[in-house]
Amino acid sequence: MAKLWERLRSSPPLKGAFLLLIVAGIAAAFAFLPNPRESALADAERFAFDQQMRLLRAVHPRPLARDVVLVGIDEDTEARFTEPVALWHRHFAAVLHGLAKARPRAVGVDVVLPERTFDGIVPGLERLAKEPLMPNLAMVGVAAYSFGRMR
After folding, report:
1. What DSSP state is assigned to residue 133?
2. Measured at the alpha carbon of residue 104, what is the angle toward residues 103 and 105, in degrees to the nearest 5?
């Protein structure tokens, strides 16, 4: 072993090849490590946190402070539903029903629904969009085109 080590140290090409193998091995090891979003440990951590929050809400519920809460739609949400956004009336209705139970002071919706009805394709969509969920709450929606004209 000592002879091999001395040979590596004395020969520049062998030393370079050895160092290249070491760096390649380290790079390969890092290439096979999962990133934080895909890691099995990260999944377990997120699951444990969700369970902890559910248990905490069940055992020791606390009233929420009157604060602003933003609910967004991201790419994962869009990928989860098979129908296009123009037919998401049922999903929006479910969210608004949940919000109605919380009795918010105001709700702002930044989603532009289609101008024409799809009630012929999916019966009941129009009713969901017009159903008064929160009678004491005014919901206002305004959309502007990119060139500034109101819709």
Report:
1. S
2. 120
Instruction: Check whether 133 has a pLDDT greater than 60.
Output: no
Q: How many CA atoms lie within 13 A of 37 on its CB side?
A: 0
Which pairs count as long-range contacts for 66-74, CB under 8 Å and 24+ apart, including other chains?
Answer: 66/105, 71/95, 73/111
DSSP string, 108-126: -------SS--TTTSTTHH
Q: Report DSSP state, residue 146.
A: T
pTM: 0.44
Using an 8 Å Cβ cutoff, are 130 and 93 in contact?
A: no
Which tens digits make up the pLDDT trace of 25-59?
888 777 777 776 776 677 788 899 999 999 998 99
Percent of the chain with pLDDT over 90: 10
- Name the residue type at position 103: R
Give the start-to-end residue ranges of the domains of the chain: 1-62, 73-151
